[in-house]
User: What shape does this take?
Amino acid sequence: MYVKVALFLISSLILSACATDKYVKRDEFNSTVQDLRQSDEALATDLAGFRSQFTEMTQDLHTKFEGYDATLGNLQGRLRVEMSAHFGHNDAALRDGDKPALDEFSEVMRQYTPHVVVTVEGFTDPSGNAEYNKQLGLRRAESVREYLVSNGGLPADQVRAVSYGEDTARQLSPGASGESGSVNRRVSLVVDYVGLAPQRVD
Assistant: This one.
């Protein structure tokens, strides 16, 4: 990618010179190439820092969640946290028993803000109609989002809520409802790491 950008900029420099009937001086050309190399090296350094901090954040969450019913997985440069926050049938109220895990999650996230965006995904079991379940899933996601912002101290503009309702592809126990479908009535937290912090805030 960086090579393509470099070639594009060099080509633009040459074409610009041709358009004004001027030759590109060797020292100007060499200076441009040197600038591009330095920019490429800086981007590579930033990428290495990104990977290091993303790995550190993931390890922190693994440590925090050892005592909870939660799983973590990487998804195309994002971190998915399948939480133990489950809900009663036709209910969007956050249970007290799920709050400690959300507190631990918030504690880790605060160390990396303003460089993360958290998306709370809400789900339902397949009972009821799809439109209602989409709304119920959103109420569940918003319930957790409100807790993360109000109690967890996460910036409101960096926590989003979406609903997948009864989406068949996202059900942990396909088709299950009632007592056996509790695993489907849940939220997931997706962390997008959108920047590099110069250092962690402890």
Observations:
- Helices lie at 2-19, 26-64, 99-110, 130-150.
